[in-house]
Design a protein that fits this description.
The protein is α+β, with helices and mostly antiparallel strands. The protein is built from 18 helices and 35 strands. The protein has three domains: 148 residues, Aldehyde Oxidoreductase, domain 4; 177 residues, Aldehyde oxidase/xanthine dehydrogenase, a/b hammerhead (Aldehyde Oxidoreductase, domain 3); 327 residues, 2-Layer Sandwich (Aldehyde Oxidoreductase, domain 4), CATH 3.30.365.10.
Length: 763
Amino acid sequence: MTTEVGEPRFIRADGVQKVNGQARYTGDLVLPGLLHGRFLYAAYPHAAIRSIDTSPARALPGVAAVIKQAYVPPNRYGMCVKDRTLFADGLVRYEGEVVAAVAAATPEIAAEACGLIRVDYDPLEPLVDPEAALEAGAPLVHEDWESSESAYAGIVRHRNDCGFVNIVKGDVEAGFAEADEIVEARYVADMAHAVPIEPHAIVADWQGERVTVWSSTQVPFMARSGVAATLGIPEGNVRIVVPHLGGGFGGKCDFHFEAHVAALARAAGRPVRLVFTRREEFLAPDKIRQPMIVDLKTGVTRDGTMTAQKARIIMDTGAYASDSPMISEVVTMMVAGPYTTPNLLIEAHTVYTNKSVGGSVRSPSGPEGCWALESHLDEVAGRIGLDPVAFRLKNLAGEDDEGPTGQRFEGIGVRECLERAAEMIGWSEKETLPEGEGMGAAVGWWFSSPAATGAYVKLNADGTATVITGAQENGSGAVMGLALLVSEELGIEPQRVGFVCQDTDAGAWDMGSAGSQTTFNVGRAVLAACGSIRERLLQIAAEKLEAAAEDLEIAEGAIRVKGAPERSLTVAEAASAAMDDGELMQASSAPLPPPMPENVGGSACVGREVFPAFAAPAFFAQAARVRLDRATGVVRVLEVAAAHDFGRVLNPLGAEGQIEGGVAMGVGLALCEGTVLDEAQQRNPDLLDYKLLTAADAPRVRIAFVDAPVREGGPHGSKGVGEPPCVPTPGAVANAIAVAAGVPIRRLPMTPSRIWSAMREGA
């Protein structure tokens, strides 16, 4: 039978291979003559390099190549600011900085050779405090910051602030003057990691002047551009292939180490494979949830109307900008939230320090920004004696209301989400909870990244279809959503839809698996391509069935006359007949949707012309019930109710999986995931001391979908699904803990020691 969009069950195209162990990941690849790569990292988080002597490493038997910055072009790169070179160039700025690379016959020889490289360092005092880094007399992490090229037009840079943005709406001081109560508080979130099961892995092989790189990247086309730019070769000489990906969560969402390994393979004259250790996975990639400080001040009247809100956000990007300046725009929207506050002043600073580099991790800045705002709003509601859910319902935006940047909301289901979440958790019974238990709620929003993309759809003679796309499947289930769209349009089972993807030589350009955008964008291209194929099928069937095309329908693998199903032919027969004129293959592109109005109604908004507003935002609310051991500060999250507005849900099974996984990630961020730093160095870069949530710790999750499709959204009015589920969870858990503990916990993660200390100080 044909499976329609919105039906809950079918087997995903890559599922069987992954379950039975047949799937091959980058680390599994073997080529003739394969060498093994290893990096030498900085011995200090901040130091000048006097000299690097690689001769002892080169002399070690089994070593094929040793390279450093002097052996590659001096080209700088960076997503938002071009502020770095492939290898440390005279200065190391954080502990994960790559100083040199080795290719050898075995991983053990490569590691030994790295230990033989002699680097003469002049250690320098690391800059670790982002607030101090913003002061006028602070030492500069990048002395040449003014000459670094901005690759992102919407940011303002000054000294250690590599990305300042703001939202200004109304008159915030006048709004505070109207308030009956003003509440102020500071919220601090620690650094956290993506921690995918599969570490970074890369294989590079040169054939003449052309290099093929197999990489565990979420952004193959970005990786292709990065390799070409840094090595100074034409983009056409670079091919990026992504085998199965063992998770990314944004941690593989940038051009990372592909060029390092490609340069190493060229120097060695043989293919090279590099697979990170777990320790390297913590230290080296520039995709870490940025440490964050959020100072909030909110004015409210006695009836619960918010009159003004002011926020100052300091986001610690570490040694390099990466995409943090772009994320600073996102966090301003997170801290504003989907509320109708008439007067806003929200400022975000992206600050250089000598720490590990921040960047995109699933819903970058979302959980932290939402946690700060939603924790704060519970405190505001408490100040005026109003129920937290009622307080939010009074201030949440509705249809056609104006958002923080002047955007008018369409298809906004946030109020219903909050009501559904409260109902599922049993909010009306919160006063009857046993001692030590508490309930809390949080709401929020997330955008679907609009991006141009393309796809090819091919209908084969046997009635199967193939989608060829440059998009990347990182486990989020895009292959499921796209298969359902093809199934619905062409009348075939989704199991009969195959995929050729993740190869820059085969697919059309795609932004990559980031920003909850794969089904949102590629789905539009797939629908357009299928529409053209469908028209051709109907033409062929009309001729053979001697009927008008408009009198035909396609369903259950057949094309039949409406009302006379006995007059039919199969989709396979029509596709086979089309072969006389050439294969049924159609290319289509999905252009950018129309831009949102730029800060309509606001008086200033730095950078918003680049990131104008949240395109087709998804809305959500979650409520949590927790149990607190007051003697130890240990918290158990018992239950989470999650109500999400994804527009129209294309694949309920996949959406449920994303919510369950997102809630688990959010609970981990709330309670245990945090990096312990000693000055600028990580002290828990391993899975023994960096605490992840396990299956045994995961709460029961109740799920509800709120149907609120949008015109300028994804296929059938859908919105992004991948990132939103983890955004409100820390806020909901924090508010539940605050009820059980009797005091707010303003540091993330909310570990037992922090909770116990807060209760003691509050008492």
